[in-house]
Amino acid sequence: MIKSDDTGKLVLRLSLGILVLLHGIMKLSSGVGGISGMLSSHGLPGFFAYAAYLGEVVGPLLVILGFYSRLGALLVVVNMIVAIMLAHTGQLSSLNAQGGWALELQGMFLFGALAIAFMGAGRFSLGGSGGRWN
Question: Chain centroid to CA 131: how far?
Fold first, then answer.
């Protein structure tokens, strides 16, 4: 178990899924009004904000469980791309006070989800290591 790709995939799935899900839980409790406003300011229908629940609740749950994990990871990827485009485009080339990229968290969520989409869930998952979407 010390040298195991499946264990590494499990650690990545759990860390990404739990951290993104925490953002989704906050949106479940406070709503998506802020996102709706951002969408409206870009000329998009405000009801698209409810799609954030797919990328921050449904996707992370699929990733955590390892059930249709590639699909869940793709939901997170799309969610993060939209979030970066809506709220963070001005920070794309910025550094923070510590010298790191201003979008470290968003980048880690995006690229971690992309890694899961490419690698799949691994053996330690509800879907096992087989299947197109796992």
Answer: 21
Spatial separation of the C-alpha atoms in residues 10 and 125, rounded to whole Å = 8
Asked whether the beta carbons of 36 and 49 are under 8 A apart, the reply is yes
Q: Residue 1: what pLDDT? A: 55
Could you give the CA distance from residue 10 to residue 45 in angstroms, rounded to a whole number? 37
Torsional sign, CA 86, 82, 27, 122: negative
The 10 Å Cβ neighbour count of residue 74 is 19
pTM, rounded to two decimals: 0.90
Say how many Å lie between the first and final Cα of the chain, rounded: 21
